[in-house]
Design a protein that fits this description.
D-Maltodextrin-Binding Protein, domain 2; six-stranded mixed β-sheet; 10 helices; 15 strands; 30% helix; binds 3-phenylpyruvic acid; Preph_deHydtase
Length: 307
């Protein structure tokens, strides 16, 4: 049975997401301490794939995931899932809210309950740990008084109880997760796909606008753009782009080839079905048929059959 890594320990949102991402095949889920460790296990071949959090509707991207995706050998996303995120506040049964002095969780979880904490635990010391379930484990071990955790964590730490449930500053907050593996056969285009890339552009006038123009010219809808420092050179950035369409689509293929020409480097991070299955509306001049017709016309002109 293939092994799939996820940000553990058991009881994280990522575990929940990875179960959904692997629902259509038999898989054994193995917890990793961090996202980089999970992705290293994919690169080394210890596991087939990994489930990782990539962005949240409240807090934005998960930098550890973006960096770990691009800092080493290529990996590609083959599937995504979006799950709603609300939190439970877990503690030992003898601890009430007014006795909580330390609260631990994943930085993204802490960021999503800031308002609730200001209201309810204004004096508590806040500690960032590697995941929401790691926080629950630490509370179970007596290291902190309370954990901001996924509701499923309680199943794994039955010695704890929920001081509060359904905590979230923003209703309907959601997180997007990816199933990532080594490059290989791509998922088939479905007509409702997303493509992710990471591009490094030179530090000159207009290079970012030029890069985006390659997408807009071909009627490609950009759904996310994020910059992260390249790290070794201050003031230089790499851009993470998500856009509608599959690399097998003519307009996306052409845009990628243009980016490859224009950018210092382009890394393909996958084409995979969108979680919401929303079919992108394509302008008439950017449809597959329009590209095919234009290519046939050009071939005929070059062959001297048309003018
Ligand atoms: O720590 C977890 O449970 C994770 O899976 C990462 C995370 C944290 C907060 C919101 C969504 C995902």
């Amino acid at each position: 049975m293939p092994e799939i890594a996820y940000l553990g320990p058991p009881g994280t949102f990522t575990e929940q997401a990875t179960r959904l991402l692997t629902a259509d095949f038999d898989a054994e889920l193995v917890p990793s301490d961090t996202v980089p460790v999970a992705l290293a296990a994919v690169r080394s071949g210890d596991v087939l794939a990994a489930g990782v959090p990539v962005e949240n509707s409240v807090e934005g991207s998960v930098p550890a995931t973006l960096d770990a995706l691009t800092d080493d050998d290529p990996l590609v996303a083959v599937k995504e899932v979006v799950i709603p995120v609300q939190f439970d506040v877990l503690a030992h049964p003898d601890v009430d809210l007014d006795r909580v002095e330390t609260v631990a969780s994943h930085p993204h979880a802490l960021a999503q309950v800031r308002g609730w904490m200001t209201e309810n635990l204004p004096k508590a010391d806040v500690r960032a740990v590697s995941s929401t379930a790691a926080a629950a484990a630490a509370v179970a071990a007596g290291e902190f008084d309370a954990a901001i955790s996924a509701p499923v964590a309680l199943e794994h730490y039955p010695e704890l109880r929920a001081l509060e449930t359904g905590v979230a500053d923003v209703r309907d907050a959601a997180t997007r997760f990816l199933l990532v593996r080594k490059p290989g056969a791509l998922p088939e285009p479905t007509g409702a796909d997303r493509t992710s890339i990471c591009a490094v552009i030179s530090h000159e006038v207009g290079t970012l606008a030029d890069m985006l123009a390659e997408l807009s010219l071909r009627g490609i809808n950009l759904s996310r753009i994020e910059s992260r420092p390249v790290k070794h050179s201050f003031g230089h950035y790499r851009f993470y782009l998500d856009f509608d369409g599959h690399v097998a689509d003519a307009r996306v293929g052409e845009a990628m080839a243009a980016l490859r020409r224009r950018c210092d480097s382009v890394r393909f991070l996958g084409s995979y079905p969108k979680a919401d299955r929303a079919v992108a509306s394509v302008r008439p001049g950017s449809s597959e048929q329009a590209f095919r017709n234009a290519a046939e016309w050009l071939a005929a002109v070059r062959a001297g059959r048309l003018a």
